[in-house]
Amino acid sequence: MRTAQEVQEYLEGVRYPARPEDLIAIAQANGAPPSFFETLGLVPTAVEFYNPGEVAEQLERLQGLGDSGKVTKTEDAGSPLSENEPSRPLLNRGNMLP
Questions:
Q1: How many CB atoms within 10 Å of residue 91?
Q2: Which of 18, 32, 65, 82 has the fewest beta carbons under 10 Å from its own?
Q3: How far apart are CA 19 and CA 28, in angstroms?
Q4: What mean pLDDT is reported for the chain?
């Protein structure tokens, strides 16, 4: 996991609000390791970050998904599921009958 200090170091000079592509360019220029900007590349381009703390939180979430291989929280129609709510099965469209 990246520390807040690393995030601030790699993103020094960013003007917020900033989109992932802006952060990637600055991170590369500041010598961030490829894993840092590759993880940022997973963030949808429409997302805007307003401070380094938001970036650090997003990176932590994304790296957490890679560590376990599982998604622990999902969003459905913009509304987060509660941790107590049972997950809903996903349809495997390849095996659906006509």
A1: 8
A2: 82
A3: 15
A4: 74
Record the pTM: 0.62
Please list the residues that pair with 80 across neighbouring strands: 75
Burial environment of residue 27 by CB neighbours within 10 A (0 to 12, 13 to 18, 19 or more)? buried
- State how far the Cα of 60 lies from the Cα of 30, in Å rounded to an integer: 20
Could you tell me if 9 and 27 are in contact, meaning their C-beta atoms sit under 8 angstroms apart?
A: no
Dihedral sign, Cα of residue 63, residue 66, residue 69, residue 74: positive
Chain centre distance of CA 51? 14
Listed by start position, the domains of the chain span 1-67
